[in-house]
Amino acid sequence: MMLDGKVCLITGSARGIGYTIAERFAENGAKIVLSDVLADQLDESASKLASSGVEVAAITADVSDAGQVQKLMKDTVEKMGSLDVVVNNAGITRDTLMIRMSEDDWDFVLRVNLKGAFLVTQAAAKIMMKQRSGKIVNISSVVGLMGNVGQTNYSSSKAGLLGLTKSSARELAPRGICVNAIAPGYIETEMTEKMSEAAKSAFLDNIPLKRGGTPSDVANAALFLASPLADYITGHVLSVNGGLYM
User: Fold this and answer.
1) How far is the C-alpha of 201 from the C-alpha of 195, rounded, in Å?
2) What is the CATH number of the domain that holds 229?
3) pTM score of the predicted model
4) What is the mean pLDDT for each group of 10 consecutive residues in the chain (246 residues)?
5) Counting Cβ atoms within 10 Å, is residue 122 exposed (0-12), middle (13-18) or buried (19+)?
6) Domain count of the chain?
7) How far apart are CA 118 and CA 35, in angstroms?
8) Catalytic: 186?
9) Residue 79 in contact with residue 57, Cβ under 8 Å?
10) Which of the residues 154, 186, 232, 245 is marked catalytic?
11) Could you give the CA distance from residue 246 to residue 11 in angstroms, rounded to a whole number?
C-alpha cells in the first residue's frame, strides 16, 4: 500500500492511461480525484472505482482554463482534505503535416497539453509548498524526445513538458516536492487505435521488445514515481517505450 491515505489527483482520467493510473493508485491505498472534460465518462469511471470501496471524487475541469484549475484545486482540498500527488495526464492530438497545420491546431494542442500542465502544477505547488511535501508526475511522450512526422504540435507540447518538469523540479525541491516525467512510447489506447496501420507498423518495427505497451506499463511507472520509493528522484524523465528510443 505505497500510497496509503494519499490524495492523488489525475487529470485526463475519465478513460485510458489516466484511469488506469487512478486504478493502480487506488489499489495502493490512495484517495482518488478524477478530473476530465468528459463529464459523463468521468462520472461512470468514478462510480466504478467507488463500487470497489475506493474513496473517490470526480471533478469536471478544463485544465487549459486557469479559473477552472483554481476551482479544481479548491474542490479537491475541500472534498479530500489535502493534495499529495498530481499526475498531469490530460492531453489531446490534432495530427497533420506541419505545412498543413492550422494555427488553431497548433494553439489548441499546446494550450491543453503544455499550458494545462503548467496551470495545474502552479496551482498544486501552492498547496504542496505549505505542506512541504508532494509528488508531481507529468505524462510526456517519446515523441517529445525524438519527434514524429505529422505531430509537430504534439511533439512540441510534450518536449515542453520536459522543460517544465526540470525547471519546476529545481524550484520546488527546497520545499520537499519532487517533479518527474514519464515518456511513454507506443501505448495501446483509444488514441493509438486511430492511427493508420502503416503508422502503427512503423512504431512496432522499431521497438526492440517487439510489442506495444499497455496503460498498465505507464501506471506502474507513475506509481513508482508517486511513491516513497522515489523520494530521492526529481527532475527525471522515465522512458517507458520498450527500447524504441534510448
Assistant:
1) 10
2) 3.40.50.720
3) 0.96
4) 97 97 98 97 97 97 98 98 98 95 98 98 98 98 95 97 98 98 92 77 89 96 98 98 96
5) middle
6) 1
7) 16
8) no
9) yes
10) 154
11) 28
